[in-house]
Amino acid sequence: MRNYRTALTWARAELAGLDNPALEAEVLLAHLLGRSRSHLLAWPERALDAVQQRAFAGLIQRRRAGEPLAYITGRREFWSLELEVGPGVLIPRADTELLVELALGLIPELIAEQAPTQGPLRIADLGTGSGAIAAAIASERPDCQVLAVERSDAALGIARANLQRLGLGHVQTRQGDWCRAFNPGERFDLILSNPPYIASDDPHLQQGDLPAEPIQALVSGADGLDDLRLISACAPAHLRPGGWLLLEHGFAQGACVRQLLRQAGLEAVRSENDLAGQQRVSLGRGKNGRLPKPAFALG
What is the CATH number of domain 4-65? Predict the structure, then answer.
């Protein structure tokens, strides 16, 4: 392990059981050195001193032991934003960018329909975790008022730090459990959530990074739907007329979530697929709004 090349060769072998050992080895060495991955590839013969070699070996052993890469580096990119993450907060995933994409796509229509005296659109992110969803929307639409809600002290602290560091300190944060964080009569044009939705006995909980992530951010009862039921029941009362509720869920939960949204009185209910072709987000619109032309509806 005398230079970058030999260190990375050794690390790839040590991490051979992972999906992408070459990438993870490069990320960890670049993190240790405070350099970019391109620097490692451009200078493969550059030497590592004994202290750096020991430190790199320690990082590789932590990853082999199952510690998530994002927890080791303390960072994860989401929507081209670099977020700080750590134990106690769910690691943002690319699948959740669909939730952001759908919300951003609804905003122009909501603005066009609003009364001239209404003021900025109000958007709430329930269960913000690291602040990923709220940060992504606020960075794209600084003209909207965004509220990030989180029940965990640890996660809310990380979210607030991320928002400040990204120059998004205007995003309001509030501690609370789902809709209980809202004030009486408080209403929003969009309410979004990526809540826990894994069943308590799901074998996926023992795979990948999940064993190291906070269980309360992953598991939601015997069928994984407990929190989705709660949000579907409480959020519609906090929607402005014609406002939208968007919920991320598991790939096999689309039909159940659509039923929950319809039972809550929402209209134009549909599900949208992620890049893998799996139903990942379901949404519905509050009454008294002009309904969009139906293009594609499931269920």
Answer: 1.10.8.10
CATH of span 78-285: 3.40.50.150
Tens-place pLDDT, residues 98-145:
999 999 999 999 999 887 667 899 999 999 999 999 999 999 999 999
CA angle, 240 then 159 then 276, to 5°: 75
Q: Which residues of the chain have a pLDDT value below 70?
A: 1, 116-117, 289-299
Residue in the block written with tokens 């059981």: 17
Quote the pTM value: 0.89
- Helix, strand, coil percentages (3-state) for the chain, rounded to 5, are 45, 20, 40
Helix axes 132-140, 153-165, angle to 10 degrees: 30
Q: In what order do the strands lie in the sheet with 145-150?
A: 172-175, 145-150, 122-126, 188-193, 239-248, 279-285, 267-273
Spatial distance between the Cα atoms of 252 and 24, rounded to a whole number of angstroms: 30
- List Cβ neighbours of 90 (8 Å cut-off, separation of 6 or more): 129, 130, 155, 213, 214, 217, 218
In whole angstroms, what is the distance from residue 42 CA to residue 64 CA? 27
Ranges of H-type helices in the chain? 4-14, 21-33, 37-42, 50-64, 69-73, 97-113, 132-140, 153-165, 226-234, 254-263
